[in-house]
Amino acid sequence: MGRFPPPSVLPGVPRRHVLAAGTRLFRVHSAARAAAAFNPVPAHCLYGGGRFDATRCDAYGYLYAGLTVEAAICETLLRSMPFDASGGPRLLPHAAVRGRRVSVLRLAREVRLVPLVSGRDLAAVGQDSWLVQAEAADYPYTRDWGHWIRAGAGADVQGFLWPSKREPADRALILFADRCPDGTLQDADVPPVDLDRRDGVAWLNTVLEGYLAAVAPGGDAG
């Protein structure tokens, strides 16, 4: 599918996927922001930003997470990182982890998401796997589609769920602040991992090893 505008109305009825209260969510985020804090800054309509960020066309706080720590790390840190033609590990620059941490959250109440997982899920919103597999160059278009789905699917929709592009066995999600009551997210009783510390880098490398990746040696982790 790809770079064309959404139709005037949804072609089907978007389904619902309920995440139960108590579900754990994993998030890679700036250490300057609380783990449960939504990003309040809209992305530019054309430049930068993520797959389903808010823009000035549809302003809402947003929070990305994974249902596994692997999904959260792969979606955040391995985006657009090609494999080494020689077969060596992909090296993640220290700048990519500076000031970042991994936190575990839990849902204090259930949330209702539009799943964008199966062919039926995607057909209900007039799309195919492009919507959740497109690379960053197409994100202005996926953001526009996301705004349209958000508007048409119903006010009960609190976010989207889709297969992680970098770890297809797991799921990524976005939550919308304006549809999640205060207290929906709580810190889980798990210490965060600061990714720019030596112990954090060592922990991260154990996760990245399975993806043929590692933090580049020689950084200034403390």
- Estimate what percentage of residues fall within beta strands: 15-25%
Shape: globular
Largest sheet: 5 strands, mixed
Low-confidence stretches: none
Secondary-structure-based class equals alpha+beta
Helix fraction bin: 10-25%
InterPro entries: RES_dom (IPR014914)
Protein name: RES family NAD+ phosphorylase
Organism: Streptomyces johnsoniae
Domain RES: 42-187
What does this structure look like?
The chain is an alpha+beta fold. It has one domain. The protein is built from 5 helices and 11 strands. The strands form 3 sheets. It has a 5-stranded mixed β-sheet. Strands 2, 5, 9 and 10 form a 4-stranded antiparallel β-sheet that branches. The longest helix is centred in the middle third of the chain and has 15 residues. It is globular and about 55 Å long. It starts with 16 loop residues before the first strand and ends in a 7-residue tail after the last strand. The mean pLDDT is 95.
Key features?
222 residues, five-stranded mixed beta sheet, alpha+beta, RES_dom, 11 strands, four-stranded antiparallel beta sheet
Set down the secondary structure blueprint.
Elements: E1 17-19, E2 24-30, E3 62-66, H1 69-77, E4 90-92, E5 100-107, E6 111-115, H2 119-123, H3 130-133, H4 139-153, E7 159-163, E8 171-176, E9 185-187, E10 193-194, H5 198-208, E11 213-215
Parallel strand pairs: 4-11, 6-7
Antiparallel strand pairs: 1-6, 2-5, 3-8, 5-9, 5-10, 7-8
Summarize this entry quickly.
The protein has 222 residues and is of the alpha+beta class. It has helices at residues 69-77, 119-123, 130-133, 139-153, 198-208, and strands at 17-19, 24-30, 62-66, 90-92, 100-107, 111-115, 159-163, 171-176, 185-187, 193-194, 213-215.
